[in-house]
């Protein structure tokens, strides 16, 4: 996965790959976080989480 972008209605997520392919994901009804986790699992990568305060 090289790039990500949400559609104007926030219900579609486009994922672009270095090989030139683009995959479209329906991110409703799951939350965007759930959708990203699903995408990351499908490409074998973990979703980096922001560090929390001390």
Which labels suit this protein?
single chain, 54 residues, alpha+beta, 3-stranded antiparallel beta sheet, 1 helix, 20% helix, 26% strand
Arrangement of strands in the largest sheet? 1-2-3
Based on DSSP secondary structure assignment, what is the total number of beta strands?
3
Topology order in helix (H) and strand (E) letters? EEEH
Q: Ranges with pLDDT <50 over ≥5 residues?
A: none
Distance between the termini: 31 Å
DSSP strand content: 25-35%
Structural class: alpha+beta
Q: How would you describe the shape?
A: globular
Mean of residue pLDDT values: 79
Please describe the biggest sheet, giving its number of strands, its sense, and whether it closes into a barrel: 3 strands, antiparallel
Number of domains: 1
* Radius of gyration from CA coordinates: 12 Å
Secondary structure tally, helices: 1
Helix content: 10-25%
What's the SSE blueprint?
Layout lengths: L2 E4 L5 E5 L5 E5 L5 H11 L12
Antiparallel strand pairs: 1-2, 2-3
């Amino acid at each position: 996965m090289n790039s990500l972008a949400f559609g104007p209605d926030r219900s579609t997520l486009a994922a672009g790959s270095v090989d030139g392919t683009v995959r479209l994901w329906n991110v409703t009804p799951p939350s965007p976080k759930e959708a990203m986790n699903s995408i990351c699992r499908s490409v074998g990568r973990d979703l980096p989480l922001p560090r929390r305060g001390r």
